[in-house]
Design goal:
Layout (H helix, E strand, L loop, with lengths): L28 E3 L5 E8 L6 H19 L1 E8 L3 H13 L6 E5 H10 L33 E2 L2 E4 L1 E4 H6 L8 H13 L5 E2 L11 H12 L4 H6 L11 H9 L11 H9 L5 E2 L6 H7 L5 E4 L12 E5 L1 E5 L6 H10 L6 H8 L14 H11 L3 E3 L5 H15 L5 H18 L2
Parallel strand pairs: 2-3, 2-4, 8-9, 11-13
Antiparallel strand pairs: 1-2, 4-12, 5-12, 6-11, 7-9, 7-10
């Protein structure tokens, strides 16, 4: 995922948490009176819409650190929007200005960040043995080191309004032809089929892992390997535009003016029946309408029912900088993320899935929806598409929606982005 989460602003938002220990002295750490010390811990998490929950949890951590270790911790939390986050973080890391703790996308970013030496080895930390066996591989490097604590595990495709579907006697479609029939019935009943919210480029790029991942699972299994060797092309995936065009031509207006938060409010109010989006917006949707009943279903991409699959992914995860001057406190925090006593309420408030043996809260209804597909063997692991390619996909698909790029233009842009990535990461 996510860090694929967002706010309406496209400017960097630096947010300092109020009430998190003493005021910052501007230094990383320093001595203080008595037996204690003060530490200014810098964090970077691109989920500003969830700030209140992070505020509360970090405040609890600050109190615990003071009580247990007599350390006065000030937390400086930077929460940029998702569209900017990846580039900002890369710049910070490359210029030796790394946050002590930072969020990254497990599937897309752990491999290159670990190769570059940015990630602290966390294999020996207490939280590791608390992870569910199904989750641990997503934050483990090829040489067996755990380098992050996962926050979000996601089963996703598109969201649908269960009330609208029930009222019109509709079921989630299993093929593209069936989706077209659903679209026509919705239109015949004056219901907009799809919510479009493309203001933030990370949202339209969701089509790429959904379509490429499903096709790779059924007909093009070596696509990633060949792309990594400059031997493939997104021309092989051109049929992805079948579902993209269906969605775009049957969606709400002013897509390029609507971001994730506005989209959540619009979806909660029934402006459209479906939204190509993940349940990482559950907390925001339910803020608008706590009684909103929505489901998660796999997005059909063609008429092969075997290709209509749920995407399984571990996205937002927290790593510790290998160059942190405050590793003791940074490590204390990533372990507190899976605290035996406090983490269940934290994950539940964020509307995240249980990922640890210590989590006791019940799965949400939309998680249960997706789990049924997983149990039926109708799922795939999120494809390891480089973040640079996903970034390009977002911008290109925005331009495609606006009529500024053709399908071939988008394909050429994606191929070029992947080749550029390969040159840098050989």
């Amino acid at each position: 995922m996510k860090m694929w989460k967002c706010v309406l602003s496209t400017m960097l938002v630096g947010t300092l948490l109020a009430g998190c220990g003493a005021n910052s002295s501007g230094s990383d750490s320093s001595g203080s009176g008595g037996d204690g010390k003060t530490v200014n811990l810098k964090m970077f998490i691109a989920q500003p819409r969830l700030k209140e929950h992070y505020d509360k949890y970090i405040n609890a951590f600050v109190a615990k650190e003071k009580k247990d270790k007599n350390i006065d911790v000030t937390v400086q939390l930077e929460m940029p929007p998702a569209d900017n986050a990846a580039q900002i973080l890369k710049t910070r890391l490359a210029s030796n200005d790394a946050p002590d703790v930072f969020a990254l996308h497990a599937v897309n970013e752990i491999p290159p960040f670990y190769k570059a030496g940015y990630l602290e080895d966390l294999s020996g930390q207490p939280f590791v043995n608390k992870l569910m066996d199904s989750v641990k591989p997503s934050v483990t490097t090829k040489d067996g080191k755990v380098v992050a604590v996962p926050l979000e595990t996601i089963s996703w495709g598109y969201l649908y309004n269960k009330k609208i579907f029930k009222d019109l006697d509709l079921q989630p479609p299993g093929t593209l032809t069936e989706m077209k029939a659903v679209v026509e019935k919705l239109k015949a009943n004056n219901v907009k089929p799809f919510l479009l919210s493309y203001k933030e480029s990370w949202i339209p790029q969701l089509f790429v892992p959904l379509t490429a991942g499903a096709m790779m699972n059924t007909q093009n299994k070596d696509f990633i390997d060949r792309m990594n060797q400059d031997k493939g092309s997104f021309a092989e995936m051109k049929s992805m535009f079948d579902i993209i065009d269906l969605v775009n031509s049957n969606g709400t207006d002013k897509a390029l003016e609507i971001g994730g938060d506005d989209g959540s409010a619009a979806f909660a109010s029934g402006k459209a029946a479906m939204w190509v989006q993940g349940p990482w917006f559950a907390e925001t949707i339910l803020k608008s309408d706590p009684k909103m009943d929505f489901g998660v279903a796999p997005l059909p991409i063609n008429d092969d029912p075997n290709a209509t699959l749920i995407n399984l992914s571990t996205s937002t995860s927290l790593a510790v900088s290998s160059t942190s001057k405050n590793k003791e406190v940074a490590l204390d925090f990533v372990n507190y993320v899976l605290d035996d006593k406090d983490s269940s309420a934290f994950y539940e408030a964020l509307k995240f899935n249980p990922i640890s043996k210590v989590h006791t809260f019940k799965s949400y209804p939309w998680v249960n929806d997706a789990t049924e597909y997983v149990k039926a063997g109708k799922s795939y692991q999120d494809p390891s598409i480089p973040q640079a390619v996903k970034d390009e996909a977002g911008k290109s698909l925005q331009s495609y929606y606006a009529g500024q790029l053709s399908q071939d233009d988008v394909i050429k842009a994606l191929d070029k982005a992947w080749k550029s990535y390969n040159k840098v990461n050989k």
